[in-house]
Amino acid sequence: MTKTEPHKRLNHGKGIIDQIAHECLLMRVRKLDRVLTGIYDAELRPFGLKASQTTLLVFVAKAGPVRRIEIGKCLCLDPSTLTRNLKIMLTNGWIQEIADGEDGRGLPVQITVQGRDLLNQIGPFWRKAQTRTEKFLGNDGATLLRKLAANKMEVSSR
């Protein structure tokens, strides 16, 4: 191997690096996610609640008694992330497990009175975050985001 060969390999890869850096949709979505999450987290912080937990709490409140596996499927969450957040919510008394007469594994969860009260308390702060987010995205961006999220989020492997 000559001294120029490693240099050629590095230059050869520069095309794909530039392409990924300038075009990658995933990088942009992840950055957008961090910005939007920061807006909601800042507003919800006084309540000891994070944006990710708010999403879960609202889902559980709307779904009624629901099993973890269904929550994970509907919200596209991996089991470890879901378990970690549900544990915090159980510890804080925002949700509770309920017996359903089955084998006891994966007991359904439901919102508690305390959890419902918390959602009612955060309402004005959530609205403030929502307004800030809509301003950040603009009308077209907010509309597009709603349309994209309304589509079924199943992706084929090809």
Describe the structure.
The chain is mainly alpha-helical and 158 residues long. Helix content is 71%, strand content 4%. It has a two-stranded antiparallel sheet. Helix 2 (25-44) packs antiparallel against helix 6 (113-150). The chain is globular. The mean pLDDT is 88.
Q: Which short descriptors sum up this protein?
A:
single chain; Arc Repressor Mutant, subunit A; two-stranded antiparallel sheet; 6 helices; 2 strands
**β-sheet strand percentage:** under 5%
CATH superfamily of the domain at 53-152: Winged helix-like DNA-binding domain superfamily/Winged helix DNA-binding domain
Question: Which architecture of the domain at 53-152 does the CATH hierarchy give at level 2?
Answer: Orthogonal Bundle
Structural class label: mainly alpha
The radius of gyration over CA amounts to: 21 Å
Q: Could you list the spans in which at least 5 consecutive residues all have pLDDT below 50? A: none
What global shape is seen?
globular
Question: Helix amount, in percent?
Answer: over 70%
Question: Major β-sheet, in short?
Answer: 2 strands, antiparallel
The CATH topology label of the domain at 53-152 is Arc Repressor Mutant, subunit A
Terminal Cα span: 38 Å
Total number of β-strand segments? 2
